[in-house]
Design goal:
Helix content is 38%, strand content 28%. Strand 5 and strand 6 form a beta hairpin. The chain contains eleven helices and twelve strands.
Length: 385
Amino acid sequence: MPPSDQPEDRRDDVTMDRDHAGLRDTFASRRYFKKFEAITRHLTRVAAQMQAERRLSEEDVKILTRYIVALDYTFRALSMKYLMVGRDTGRFFGSLEMDRVESGFPVFNELLVMANDAAQAGKHLEQMPGVEALKDEMVRKIVGDREIPTKLQFALSQRLYYEELLKGDLFWARNDPQAIWQGNVTDRRRRYMLHWAVYDSQINLPTIYLMEVEDSGRTALPKDERRWPEAQAHLVGQSVGGLKLVTIAKGFDEDFDDLHPKRLRRFHVGPMYSKAYTLQNGPLREVLEEAHAPEGQDWALAWTYEELESERVTEERAGWFSTVEREVFALDPFSGRGVDTGATRMERAIILPQRPFQVLAEKNPPGFGSVRKFVVGAGGRVLSY
């Protein structure tokens, strides 16, 4: 299946009649997945660059890299599923639905269907011919019948899709919290890093959470059969992009008297902007149009980092004879923005290839002065501006 040699900006490849677009053309679909394969690779380099600048710790980067790699596996699986889209496969299989207005990523329902497919992947593979058997049959079709074995190619693509799902370690619609022990504060007080991620259904974007927690319970949190499942369910239930970090942290603090959130961070991966695939408005749209970047460099990815820190601890009465700790969180003091953001600090960044960056620097649109720029240069090297 040869790579596309079609022009990058063919808008008729994509059905554009709704907020969600279906990639119904073979070449458009393959270019889309190839674009995200490159983007996820650059994201790991951005995380490494932030570690070099001491903005992220080594452990932070390991956690973020894990989710970025999982996201790459998810795109790889979906690329197999839709490898033959637009071809005559003998049946209607649909096409990848992407959010062309808000995020540039696949819509939330794609990940829900993928999770359902993963639960039944083993059964599907048992009923399908093996990879080598399908390839042999393709050869016979080409040599004997002198036909393009499209239906066999489709069958092979579906087998490869289910094999990817069976490997696991993908980014799912919900990636439940995990706990990493970080040492003891005292003999009866432990510190954990909790991390989890969701594919936000409201904005169709992957979102990663990191929370540093002190545990004063009798039983270590991951081994506590009552508190740990409750804490996991609570955190996932509050993982909505529309909720401020201070709302999430306070709710957790009040619901668990012996769990004390000291620091909460959230990483929004996206939106992705592309002249060929998305319809977002604003300066980035104009930058990409004016850049006339070659295939594979017509994109920009936003990245938002929010952080909330505990400023001090107070005590409040709990019943007649006891008190509980409550965290007081520090909000951004500048211009009253903390009330609006619900965070101690917020940083916006954008990752883009060199040519779009040059246009962005020349135009210097309002509002981009404080945005960090990570520029992908020759050889995939990432530079920070």
